[in-house]
Specification:
The protein is of the alpha/beta class and about 450 residues long. About 30% of the residues lie in helices and about 20% in strands. It contains 13 helices and 18 strands. Helix 1 packs parallel to helix 2, helix 3 packs across helix 5 and helix 5 packs parallel to helix 6.
C-alpha cells in the first residue's frame, strides 16, 4: 500500500506537497483552503517587522503560447501585523493538527530572532524556515540574500536560531551565489535540521518599451525582482543535486523548490535527493487544485515502479550523476527519422544545417522528407529536440556496447589532444562543407 506521508527532520506531513513561503501562504484562509484541497504542508509567508509593498508587484516571461514560463515578483515579506499572522496560525493548527505549518522568518538582531521564534512556537508552528534568499528589497536592509551570500554570517544566525528553537529548523538558501555548497555547508555547520532551496533568482524579466522601465513598472520606475517558475527548474535541480551528493551535507533532509508544476517535476526533485517539495508559481497560476494531479501522478509512478514510500526512491538518480570526464566516449547514437510520422516541416534540416553538424539532407523528389547522413551524424540530439512530432526522430545506439573509455582514462593514459592541431582531436576528419558552399544560392 502506497504511503505518501513524510517525516521531514521531525516535521510530519500527510504528503510531501508543501506550499512555499509566498503570496499563496499570506493568510490562514489561503492555507486552510490549500489543506482542504490536498496540500500536506505550507510555509507561511515570511514573518518579520511588517513591510509596505508597492503596486504593481509581478512580471512574467511568456514563451509563445505558454503564459508565465518565468515569473518575477518584487513583493516583500508579510505586510500584515505579526499578531494577525500568529492568531491565524493557531486557527489553522486547530483545524489541521496533522498538517505541517512552517513559519518562515526574517529578522535582524539576535534578540529579534529569539523573540519571534518563541512567538511562532507558541502559535503552534511545526517548524521554522529561515529566509536567507529574498533577492530584492530585504537584502538592501541586510537580510534575505544578503545573508545567503555570506556563509559566515549565515552560520552565525543559524547558530542563534538553533540555540533558541525547540522545533525543527530549515535553512532556505539563495541561488544567487556561484557555489551553492558554501552556504549549504555553513547551514549544516551551524546545526540546521534541514535545508530548502532554491529561493528566487535576482532578475529583470523585461523592459517596457514606452516608459523604458523594467517590469513590473511602478510609477515609471522598476527594480530587479525574484525570478521563479518553470524556467528555473533545471538550475534548481542542479543545486539540489550538488547538496545531496556532498558528503558533509547529504545527511540533512532537503526540501526542493523551483518550477515544480507536475507530478513528474516532483519525482525528478526526489530522485535527486529531495524528500519534500515546495510550490509557489504553479499555485499562483493554476490554483490550489493542481495538487490533485501531483498526488495522483506520484501514486501512479510509485505503483508502476513498486515503491511504497517516497524514501524508496529518493536520491535514486544521484549515482548516475557524474562529472563530464567520466562519461563514456565510446557510446555512439545516430538519429533515425520515422518517415510515416514525418510532416515535412524540415525543422530538423534547418536546425542541423545552421546550428549543428550538417547531417541531414532533403529529398530531391520534392516530398520534403529529410534523411540522416549517418557518417556526418554525431548524435547531438538537436533534430529530435526541435521535431514537433513525438518520436518521429529517435536516437538509436549504434556501438556494440562493449567499450568504455572516458576523458579521465585517456588523460591518465596520455591519449588526449595536447596541441592545437592534434590528430587525436574528436573532430579530426569529420565532414564540414567548404565555406564557399554557404553562398551557393548566390553563385
Amino acid at each position: 500500500m502506497i504511503d505518501l506521508s513524510i517525516d521531514f527532520a521531525g516535521i510530519k506531513s500527510p504528503n510531501p506537497f508543501w506550499l512555499a513561503s509566498a503570496p499563496p501562504t499570506n493568510s490562514g484562509y489561503q492555507i486552510m483552503k490549500a489543506f482542504e484541497a490536498g496540500w500536506g504542508g505550507a510555509v507561511w509567508k515570511t514573518l518579520g517587522v511588517p513591510t509596505i509593498n508597492v503596486s504593481s508587484r509581478y512580471g512574467a516571461i511568456n514563451y509563445r503560447d505558454t503564459r508565465m514560463a518565468g515569473f518575477s515578483n518584487i513583493e516583500l515579506i508579510s505586510d500584515r501585523p505579526l499578531e494577525d499572522n500568529l492568531r491565524e496560525m493557531e486557527e489553522v493548527k486547530k483545524y489541521f493538527p496533522n498538517h505541517a505549518v512552517i513559519a518562515s522568518l526574517m529578522v535582524d538582531t539576535r534578540e529579534e530572532w529569539i523573540q519571534i521564534i518563541k512567538d511562532v512556537e507558541n502559535a503552534g508552528a511545526d517548524g521554522i524556515e529561515l529566509n536567507f534568499g529574498c533577492p530584492h528589497g530585504m537584502c538592501e536592509r541586510g537580510m534575505g540574500s544578503a545573508v545567503g551570500q555570506e556563509p559566515a554570517v549565515l552560520k552565525t544566525i543559524v547558530e542563534w536560531v538553533m540555540d533558541a528553537a525547540k522545533i525543527p529548523v530549515i535553512t532556505k538558501l539563495s541561488p544567487n551565489i556561484s557555489h551553492i555548497i558554501d552556504p549549504g555547508l555553513a547551514a549544516v555547520q551551524g546545526g540546521t535540521d534541514a535545508i530548502s532551496l532554491v529561493n528566487t533568482f535576482k532578475s529583470i524579466v523585461g523592459v517596457d518599451l514606452d516608459s523604458y522601465a523594467p517590469y513590473p513598472v511602478v510609477d515609471g520606475k522598476g527594480t530587479n525582482g525574484g525570478y521563479c517558475g518553470p524556467a528555473v527548474k533545471p538550475i534548481a535541480l542542479n543545486m539540489v543535486k550538488d547538496l545531496a551528493q556532498h558528503q558533509e551535507i547529504n545527511h540533512v533532509p532537503i526540501s526542493g523548490i523551483g518550477g515544480i508544476e507536475t507530478w513528474r517535476d516532483v519525482v525528478e526533485f526526489m530522485l535527486l535527493g529531495a524528500t519534500s517539495v515546495q510550490v509557489c508559481t504553479a499555485a499562483m497560476h493554476y490554483g490550489f487544485g493542481i495538487v490533485r494531479e501531483m498526488e495522483s501522478g506520484l501514486r501512479q509512478f510509485m505503483d508502476d515502479k513498486g515503491y511504497q514510500t517516497i524514501y524508496d526512491f529518493a536520491g535514486k538518480a544521484l549515482p548516475n550523476v557524474t562529472e563530464w570526464k567520466h562519461l563514456n566516449l565510446e557510446y555512439d547514437v545516430k538519429a533515425q527519422i520515422n518517415e510515416d510520422k514525418c510532416i515535412g516541416c524540415d525543422l530538423c534540416y534547418i536546425a542541423c544545417d545552421d546550428g549543428a553538424h550538417q547531417a541531414i539532407s532533403l529529398s530531391s523528389n520534392g516530398n520534403r522528407i529529410p534523411s540522416i547522413i549517418d557518417e556526418n551524424c554525431v548524435g547531438c540530439n538537436l533534430c529530435a529536440l526541435v521535431c514537433p512530432v513525438e518520436d518521429c526522430i529517435t536516437m538509436e545506439r549504434v556501438d556494440d556496447g562493449k567499450k568504455d573509455n572516458t576523458w579521465h582514462e585517456r588523460t591518465e593514459n596520455n591519449t588526449i589532444p595536447v596541441t592545437f592541431n592534434d590528430d587525436r582531436a574528436g573532430g579530426k576528419g569529420h565532414y564540414v562543407p567548404e565555406p564557399i558552399e554557404a553562398l551557393k544560392n548566390r553563385l
